[in-house]
Amino acid sequence: MKRVPGKQSNYSLITAELSALYEIPSLSFSDSEERFAAEVVEKATRLFGVRYFTLHAGPPGNRRLLASWGFQDVARIEERINIPSPERFNLPLGEKGQTGLVFMEQAQPILSRERRIFTVFARRVEIVLQTLSENARRKRVEQELSRYREHLEELVKERTSELKMSNELLRREIRERKQAEMEREAMARDAAASKERELMERTNRLASIGLLAAGIAHEVNNPLQGMLSHMHAVRRALPEDFPKNDSIEMVEEGIQSISEIVNKLLTLTRQSGHSGPATAISSVALDFVTQLLEHEFKRAGIKIIRKEESTRFKLNINQQELIQVLINLYINAKDAMPKGGRLTVTTFAEEDHCVICLADTGQGIPKKLLGQILSPFFTTKGARGTGLGLSVAESILRHCGGSIHVESAENKGSTFRLKIPLVREEK
Ligand SMILES: Nc1ncnc2c1ncn2[C@@H]1O[C@H](COP(=O)(O)OP(=O)(O)OP(=O)(O)O)[C@@H](O)[C@H]1O
Ligand SMILES: [Mg+2]
Questions:
Q1: ∠ Cα 381 209 380 (to 5°)
Q2: Which of the chain's ends, N or C, has fewer CB atoms near its CB within 10 Å?
């Protein structure tokens, strides 16, 4: 705003003011602070004819010099700005000068109307500077955001591939486990099938042996009985001092023994048909067997101890058959205690069964033989035993709805636990 002295000056001042007001809004939003500062300097010097001009950016204490005009010695700028004078115009930009500072100096004192125009100019500069710094900040944020987004995408990619890998591992493990499970199941199925086959074969073998034995026993039994009665008749007919009486007696005992084996075989195959009452009284059967063998047990140094919860358990089993079972168990116990010992017989009720426990203090049964002792013909007594006693007992008990169970400890003793159904009393 160059001033011309005289009358014209007012006119040219107004013209200069108008052109300044016209040009100020055209201070453009350049793409950089530097370019904008150059434009500001060009406009300030052209429009206002200033001698010195500076444009600073930033808050007090941290200002950067964006542009200057007229200074030879840049070091003296601060000094000039800070000394107030009527030729100088100093306008802080933004609130408390946070955005920057515009400084202008003329050759003559600045008029108040010039100050107003300078202020309008400075405000426009302020707006553009703020917008530029806001734009720069936004750009920085955007760049940061895009870097962050890229980093995130990278992370997502990494995690996705990790997930894929662990998924694959998991799938492989599941597949392997399933495979192992299937193999295990197949093996278990095979084992079960072969066990079943074995059992079937064994059952079939036993059934055919049983049938064979039953057939033979049946056929043998009748002639045996005939032989026995003929032997009795022969002995009766001979004088008492007949020299071969011993031999005849031995033949009789032999036939008797064969007959017993045959009877056991017939019981095993349920072809004997015992007579006598269909039910048994526990104490009657036990009394009978105890009395029968008492003498023999005493001689062997074995004490029989009886513990009965009741003496009159009525059992759903043929009395003769129960006696047969008990005799075998008593004799087995005696055989297991060659140096004497104790046989404890306990009787008690358990739900709808009567339990008879026979516990001896004998040599016991080795673990590996325990599974075999109920099999027909299994014996450890050599020629002295047939190995039919326990299998007959098991067969009798099974047929009346009972069972036999063995527990044994080597050198300590064995316990045979018989479970026999109780007769249900009608009310
Ligand atoms: N109380 C027991 N203590 C130890 N071993 C026993 C006992 N009872 C049975 N055993 C074993 O079980 C086997 C089979 O018994 P089981 O009564 O079936 O036949 P056995 O006694 O050998 O012959 P049998 O009864 O025909 O005379 C016996 O040989 C014996 O080895
Ligand atoms: Mg026996």
A1: 10
A2: C
Ligand 1 pocket: which of 375, 381, 404 to mutate (most atoms within 8 A of CB): 381
DSSP 4: -
| pTM confidence score | 0.49
> What atom in ligand 1 is closest to the CA of residue 378?
14
422: CA distance to ligand 2 center in Å?
26
Q: At what angle do helices 245-268 and 112-237 cross, to 10 degrees?
A: 150
406 Cα to the center of ligand 1, angstroms: 12
Domain boundaries along the sequence of the chain = 8-142, 280-421
pLDDT in tens, the chain (427 residues): 655 554 456 777 788 778 888 888 777 777 788 888 888 888 888 888 888 999 998 888 888 898 999 988 888 888 888 888 999 999 988 888 888 899 999 888 988 888 888 888 888 888 888 888 888 889 999 999 999 999 999 999 999 999 999 999 999 999 999 999 999 999 999 998 888 887 777 666 666 666 667 677 777 877 888 888 888 888 888 888 888 888 888 888 888 888 877 777 776 665 445 555 688 999 999 998 898 888 889 999 999 999 998 888 999 999 888 988 998 999 999 999 999 999 999 999 999 999 999 999 999 999 999 999 998 889 999 878 888 889 889 989 999 999 999 999 999 999 999 999 999 876 5
Burial class (CB in 10 A: 0-12, 13-18, 19+), 180: exposed
Q: Which atom of ligand 1 is nearest to the CA of 413?
A: 3
Ligand 1, atom 19, residue with closest C-alpha: 387
CA dihedral 316, 320, 322, 326 (to 10 degrees): 170
Quick one: fold of 280-421? Answer: Heat Shock Protein 90 (3.30.565)
- For ligand 1, mutation pick of 390, 408, 415 (most atoms within 8 Å of CB): 390
Query: φ, ψ for residue 422 (rounded to 5)?
Result: -80, 150
